[in-house]
Amino acid sequence: MTINVEALQDLLCERLCEDIVVDRRPDGDLMLRTHFRFPDGDGFPIHISPAPSGGIRLSDRGHTLMHISYDHDVDAFLDGTRGALLERIVAESGLQQQQGAFCMDTTPEQLPTALFQLGQALTRIYDLTFLSRSNVGSTFYDDLAECLGNLVDESKMERDFRPDVPNPNAYTVDYRIAGRDDLPLFLYGVPNRDKARLTTIMLLHLHRHRLAFESIIVFENQMEIPRMDLARLTDVGGEMISSLDAHEDFSRKLLRRVAA
Questions:
Q1: Which domains does the chain have, with CATH numbers?
Q2: Distance between CA atoms of 155 and 10, rounded to whole angstroms?
Q3: Strand order in the sheet with 101-106
Q4: Is it the case that residue 133 has pLDDT exceeding 50?
Q5: Which residues contact 189 (CB under 8 A, 6 or more apart)?
């Protein structure tokens, strides 16, 4: 089959022109209707207005973050690993971020290019929601911090706690939480085999120096920890949470040990 390049080009131009439409809303605002969609089928609301410095401004007027807020804590989303990735996308795409809105200034002549750049950037931003604990280990500690923040008052927690043992800097505890009966609760996050082994070593050191505490081990996915490493950690650790998806188990085991 021989491809008619000119005919294909004409067809693409025709169909793209049909599918990208400038609409005037009842309030007089202009919006672009495109094929950019969120996973639930809602279209990207791309508004057109005069840019402060001249030309045209394209903006989502905060709708992308609002859409993310349906299923996520936006403050947590803008922090940690995802927050750093978001900043990178904004910088690479030439976006501006103003009071929760993502926008891009352009000229009428460059509008098609700017439209696709903005659509691609908003898609990348929304896709950060898929950087979950199930497929990106680097977000595990962010997710753990969010879960803890939802369950325990910040005043009862201390991150990267240095216990009262020799060489405490080498045996930091991920979280020290005020426990019942003045017995501190040490919580360790374990996203992989290496952290499982390190946590075993640290707990052995604390026990060897007869430190009084309880412990909870929270795995990213307990099933991925080799059997021997898990067995050693089980010997020295306390309660264990198989993953952050075990919400009820995590809440029950944690709250019954936290000081009232």
A1: 5-130 (no CATH), 137-255 (3.40.1350)
A2: 65
A3: 21-24, 30-33, 46-50, 56-59, 101-106, 96-98
A4: no
A5: 140, 141, 144, 174, 195, 218, 220
User: What values do phi and psi take at 81, rounded to 5?
Assistant: -60, -45
Placement of tokens 């995590």 in the chain: 250
Tell me the pLDDT tens digit for each residue of 74-127: 877 777 777 888 888 999 888 999 888 999 998 888 888 888 898 889 988 988
What does the pLDDT average to over 35-41? 80
CA dist list (Å): 91 to 20, 125, 139, 236 = 26, 12, 21, 46
Whether pLDDT at 13 is above 70: no
> How many C-beta atoms surround the C-beta of residue 260 within 10 A?
5
- Tell me the C-alpha distance between 71 and 67, whole Å: 8
Size (the chain), residues: 260
Write out the two tokens for 41.
Answer: 């089928």
Q: What is the pLDDT of residue 186?
A: 96
Phi/psi at 62 (nearest 5 deg)? 85, 0
Q: Which two tokens stand for residue 185?
A: 């609760």
Spatial strand order in the sheet of 157-161: 157-161, 173-177, 185-190, 214-219, 239-241
Q: Could you say which DSSP state residue 105 is in?
A: E
Q: Taking a C-beta distance cutoff of 8 angstroms, is the pair 159, 165 a contact?
A: no
- Residue 86: helix, strand or coil by DSSP? helix
Confidence band, pLDDT 50/70/90 cuts, at residue 136: very low
